[in-house]
Design brief:
The protein is of the alpha/beta class. The chain has 13 helices and 17 strands. The protein has helices spanning 3-14, 59-69, 82-94, 106-121, 141-146, 150-153, 171-177, 201-213, 265-268, 284-299, 302-323, 346-354, 377-395, and strands at residues 26-30, 33-36, 41-44, 98-103, 128-132, 163-166, 182-187, 190-191, 197-198, 217-222, 245-248, 259-264, 327-333, 336-341, 357-358, 360-362, 366-369. The chain has a 7-stranded mixed sheet with strand order 4-12-11-10-7-5-6, sandwiched between helices. β16 (360-362) and β17 (366-369) form a beta hairpin. The longest helix is centred in the last third of the chain and has 22 residues, at 302-323. The two termini are 36 Å apart. The model has no long low-confidence stretch (mean pLDDT 97). Bound molecules: pyridoxal-5'-phosphate. Pyridoxal-5'-phosphate is lined by residues 105-107, 110, 136-138, 188, 192-193, 221, 223-224, 249.
């Protein structure tokens, strides 16, 4: 049996069937490229589902992992360590005056955010959180309950009841969900899983002002949009607002599992010892590597590249839109890009993979392209060449 078939057989026999896995067996990666077990090379314009912002195996990240692994990998959170403290300072310096809690995944940090809403609202009997239709906040029970998409929730009902759904980008819809039990709004500024839907500046301004007037917490889920993806370090910085709390993950550790929940100073003291914890959260290994990510972003001028390459990719995709009538719209901010088709996007994703290009298909008809923020112009050109070939086949 070929190695690839053997591995696939192992998955089928031993792994819980929660993922729809496709394509070959991948064996190694470097920058924007992956190689499968047969040695075939792929251009990866969706590395690590938005995680690998510095591409695969960035040499400085590899070095930081090796060095820290030989020094101290894990330490429980009842003891002091240097790495986590320094990273916390870096995160706060990069966001707003506040405090940070480190966890391991997006959903885990969202859980901390949901707990904040309870701590904040309990003083006056408020507990309802408004979230947006087509949002995605994760798979743990709280995060799932906050996710306003029935396809994820229906198999698990009854879910937690205290979440209200509003239409994204519709301020009137938001207001209609507010009552005297409302304590917070939780939203993605750009919905990722929901198909790259970008919040308008006007909407966010209205929402933020309303939250201030009505003493509601404005919580930004930047699991996907954070760490430079949109051309600013955090997406909220494109909107000239400051959230009351922020959730970041995916690109934060550029591949190591880490998330951060940042809370503004005014409410941070609601968390007291014993109210929240995570065994693995903020280990010296991941915090040291994450600190390195911040350094690389500055040193390699990653934000400038994101803006430049994002603009280039958007322009080229719009040219493709003029050629193929089934491309309905291209939506983008920085290197977070959605191409809305009038046909199913999954076959496009599969055909692209066969031709050596990795992208993503989401929300039935949307192609999601989120390259490494280090992506080069030639790589974008190559990717678009393959995509155009696929589009030609789809057309025929
Ligand atoms: C906006 C957003 N929030 C939360 C999550 C959940 O993150 P994780 O899968 O790390 O739990 C995701 C994952 O895709 C996400 O895109």
């Amino acid at each position: 049996m070929k190695k690839e078939q053997e591995i696939k057989q192992l998955f089928e026999t031993y792994s819980l069937n929660t993922y729809k896995r496709v394509g070959p067996v991948f064996a190694k990666g470097k920058g924007s490229f992956l190689w499968d077990s047969e040695g075939k090379k792929y251009l990866d314009l969706f590395p690590g589902w938005g995680v690998s912002i510095l591409g695969h195996c960035h040499p400085q990240i590899v070095k930081a992992i090796k060095e820290q692994a030989g020094k101290l990998i894990h330490l429980p959170n009842n003891l002091f360590q240097e790495e986590q403290a320094i990273l916390a300072k870096e995160v706060i310096k990069s966001t707003f005056p506040g405090k940070v809690f480190f966890a391991n995944s997006g959903a885990e940090a969202i859980e901390a955010a949901i707990k904040l809403t309870r701590l904040y609202g309990n003083k006056n009997g408020r507990y309802e959180v408004i979230t947006m239709k087509n949002s995605f906040h994760g798979r743990t029970f709280g995060a799932l309950s906050a996710t306003a998409q029935n396809k994820y929730k229906d198999p698990f009902r009854p879910i937690l009841p205290e979440f209200k759904e509003a239409v994204f980008n519709d301020f009137e819809s938001f207001k209609s969900q507010v009552n005297d039990k409302t304590v917070a709004v939780l939203l993605e500024l750009i919905q990722g899983e929901g198909g790259i839907n970008i919040a308008s500046k006007e909407y966010i301004k209205n929402l933020k002002e309303f939250c201030k007037e009505r003493d509601l917490l404005f919580i930004a889920d930047e699991v996907q949009t954070g760490m430079g993806r949109t051309g600013k370090l955090f997406c909220y910085q494109n909107y000239n607002i400051t959230p009351d709390a922020l959730v970041v993950s995916k690109g934060l550790g550029a591949g190591v599992p880490v998330s951060a929940f940042v809370v503004k100073n005014e409410v941070a003291d609601l968390f007291k010892p014993g109210l929240h914890a995570s065994t693995f959260g903020g280990s010296p290994l991941v915090t040291k590597v994450t600190l390195e990510v911040f350094k690389i972003i500055k040193k390699e001028k990653i934000l400038r590249n994101t803006e430049k390459m994002g603009g280039y990719l958007l322009k080229k995709l719009n040219k493709l839109k003029d050629k193929f009538t089934f491309i309905k719209e291209v939506r983008a901010m920085g290197l977070m890009i959605g191409v809305e088709l009038s046909v199913d996007s999954f076959p496009v994703f599969m055909k692209a993979m066969e031709k050596g290009l990795v992208i993503n298909s989401t929300h039935q008809t949307v192609l999601r392209i989120m390259p490494a923020l280090t992506v080069k112009k030639e790589e974008i050109d190559k990717g678009l060449e393959i995509l155009e070939e696929v589009f030609k086949e789809i057309k025929n």
